[in-house]
Inverse folding.
């Protein structure tokens, strides 16, 4: 038996699993809230540490920490509401048409130890105590986080705060651990006691890990959120009516956080009649200075993707690197803009839809909406798609909207995809390759569903039933009785 | 573009998909009920055809057809209830703690064309118009069924009845097709327009298909139900108090339908103090004549598995083949019984848990419940696990019940696992390798969840929203508003 930190962490998680799974909603919610409170108490130090490692700046990082603690508390509320347990009780029915129906009770039980691969671009909200961790805890699953190497000190600090808070709150040892290094992550992913893994990051990294999860002796669910180019369509009428407003909104969304968002609108469809709109966007982008990226490895990946896109046949550079040399600009590249027509875009296939993680936009001009609609079904799966159009056009855009919705997890109308609200109705996911598990979300309260598995109890005595299925309903959860 | 029947079927399904997805609940439910009515009207011919091809007998087959039409109607009711759409509406909230919340609406949309691999052992209920087909239709997905070669005439007849009923009811062409042959099944599974596949059958076949689904350019969900040995534990007190009743129940469950159920209780744990119970079971099994199996290929697979189990170290044959020769007994083998102690069972590892699809039981004797409980965590994933014990023991069996529940999809108390009721709270699934998708069920109304994918709409005008998310709620579905 291995004594590596990864093996120890999964073993500890496995030992803690039954205690978490059976903890009452009040207790479990208390643990989540304790972590939220502790992170708030350490806000100043955490934000400072995060800024030193990510260059994201205190405003953004303070906001992100708020999002993170809010998220923990929102999941705590979900735990207490208990609807996600989907408790169903079918009482015996001797007249059931297929033969006497026994007493059957079903709920969603906690899956077991979950491995979370932290993301680089959300050092709080998709990292150590971020959404994946919070939703797994809410489900009643212990968590092992594989730290992102982009912010190691912050990861350790956040983990220490969380561990202390959990210990003070009486949570089981093993409910949470941090491991570091790629090797440790893979080792944890291969550990027989692991039940599921969640990942936010690049397509290459995510697909490699998904394969490891699938090739285990016992395959486990792998929830990978791999990013996308988030197409935005501007209708002819919208381009005419409010080109400046659209240009302003687009530039803001594209360059926010140095473009380092999985919902960054990297692909913009505009009418070919609206040449002024492209110029307007380029002019505004020219005013945006380069912003430091998360690290040299991100900047160099960005430069590579940007080069590949710029070299595609039919793609012209509207706004290239500022130094004019065509080489990259270090770790703080200024925004860029490329353009192509619909024919060139279509001819390039999936290469034109490669995610370029940073402040680069590809504008594709189309002649009419029907031509544009015909290419939508061939788009790779996307986290989001957006439609900018005039209210008067809505009724006529049904089939385009339907086509876009069929290729994404979230469809927006006259809004920009960055800034993913944490709510009950949020869906942050989408068809492959945007994610490896299109039926799930990694943001919003429905994220908890990833870490549950239904179990039915047939004719079992009350003593042996889990609390959500008992007649006296000690957890006070919603029970769907006999349909 | 290929013109094979499989390609045509998936293309037709793909063309029908948007029409099914947008059909109102009343319309969609009407299609399911039309198929149910048509099958009822053809009952005599269908049962006769089924009996000629499967030897399952008219009593069982009539019951199974009733189950099948009931299932279609139950899913029709689910469609009208609409709860599975999980419609959520978050109204705008300028005070939302993470920043102004936009109007967000989320529901589960139909996934698209579904391929169903029909099973041999349920020629109605898990075949052409069985549970997988009914639940996919309920979700709004067109279905291509790959017929099982064990009952080709019945498959064609059922398909013809269903197609005619759907056409008469005005359903879109392409909502349902039948293809035949292994090659056609694999071709359909590889078709780019396919969105998901469901399978009921052997572990070997299921895992091979699961791999094909995973290795597609766009991987798709593969819901494989691969069977298990369904461990049954008899407590010492129960063995003392009602050994005869338990022996009778066990023999009935083990030999029902020639043992050809995925929930067949192939593994029985009894106290070593209850030697009489094993004798009692053997004596009763000896009275059960051989019953014809579904076909020669099933009988020969059964004979092979039986031989492998019997040859494991420490396994003794209590009741072998009736002809005394040790060879198989043609297509109607009589029940067999093997026995081993817990140490031999443990030493054999997973080989002792190989599913033997037919009337063979392996009895494992244990010295005390604590020793038994310690081996439970190492059991492969199971569809069911059962506990036969006295009511007075219940309070003391909590940890054993919990361990069993953690390895299965359904835990039974003093009942037998065969006879899976179709209800709201049924769970027919379980950890790998019992299924390839432990978070889902293939029986009961929750089976519809396999064929849905959440999509969110942000700030979209009413005109562009799917009906379940509109303010006027034209489908009258439950909407969870602002949490």
């Amino acid at each position: 038996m291995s004594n590596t930190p990864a093996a120890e962490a999964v073993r500890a998680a496995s030992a803690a699993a039954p205690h978490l799974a059976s903890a009452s909603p009040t207790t479990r919610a208390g643990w989540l809230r304790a972590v939220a409170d502790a992170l708030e108490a350490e806000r100043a130090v955490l934000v400072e540490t995060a800024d030193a490692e990510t260059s994201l700046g205190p405003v953004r990082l303070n906001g992100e920490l708020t999002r993170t603690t809010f998220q923990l508390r929102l999941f705590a509320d979900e735990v207490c509401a208990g609807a996600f347990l989907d408790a169903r009780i079918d009482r015996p029915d001797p007249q059931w048409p297929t033969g006497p129906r026994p007493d059957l009770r079903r709920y969603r039980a906690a899956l077991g130890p979950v491995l979370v691969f932290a993301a680089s671009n959300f050092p709080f909200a998709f990292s150590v105590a971020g959404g994946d961790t919070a939703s797994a805890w809410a489900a009643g699953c212990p968590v092992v986080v594989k730290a992102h190497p982009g912010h190691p000190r912050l990861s350790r600090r956040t983990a220490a705060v969380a561990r202390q808070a959990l210990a003070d709150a009486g949570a089981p040892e093993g409910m949470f651990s941090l491991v570091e290094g790629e090797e440790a992550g893979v080792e944890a992913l291969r550990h027989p006691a692991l039940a599921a893994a969640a990942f936010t990051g690049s397509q290459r990294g995510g697909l490699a890990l998904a394969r490891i999860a699938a090739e285990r002796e016992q395959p486990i669910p792998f929830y990978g959120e791999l990013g996308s180019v988030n197409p935005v369509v501007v209708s002819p009428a919208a381009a005419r009516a409010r080109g400046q407003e659209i240009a302003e909104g687009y530039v803001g969304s594209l360059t926010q956080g140095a473009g380092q968002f999985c919902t960054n609108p990297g692909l913009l469809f505009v009418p070919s009649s609206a040449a002024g709109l492209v110029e307007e966007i380029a002019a505004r982008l020219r005013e945006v200075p380069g912003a430091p990226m998360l690290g040299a490895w991100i900047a160099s990946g960005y430069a590579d993707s940007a080069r590949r896109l710029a070299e595609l046949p039919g793609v012209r550079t509207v706004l290239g690197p500022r130094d004019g040399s065509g080489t990259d600009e270090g770790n703080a590249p200024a925004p860029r803009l490329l353009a192509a027509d619909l024919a060139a875009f279509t001819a390039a296939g999936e290469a034109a839809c490669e995610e370029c993680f940073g402040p680069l936009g590809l504008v594709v001009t189309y002649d009419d909406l029907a031509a544009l609609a015909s290419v939508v079904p061939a788009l790779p799966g996307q986290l989001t798609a957006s439609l900018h159009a005039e209210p008067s056009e809505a009724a006529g855009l049904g089939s385009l909207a339907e086509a876009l919705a069929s290729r994404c997890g979230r469809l927006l109308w006259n809004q920009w995809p960055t800034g993913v609200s944490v709510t009950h109705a949020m869906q942050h996911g989408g068809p492959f390759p945007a994610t490896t598990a299109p039926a799930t979300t990694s943001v919003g309260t429905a994220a908890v569903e990833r870490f549950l598995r239904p179990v039915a109890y047939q004719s079992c005595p009350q003593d042996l039933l889990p609390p959500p299925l008992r007649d006296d309903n000690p957890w006070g959860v919603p029970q769907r009785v006999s349909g």
User: Anything to note?
Assistant: Chain B has two domains: 5-226+435-481, 232-413. Chain B has a mean pLDDT of 96.
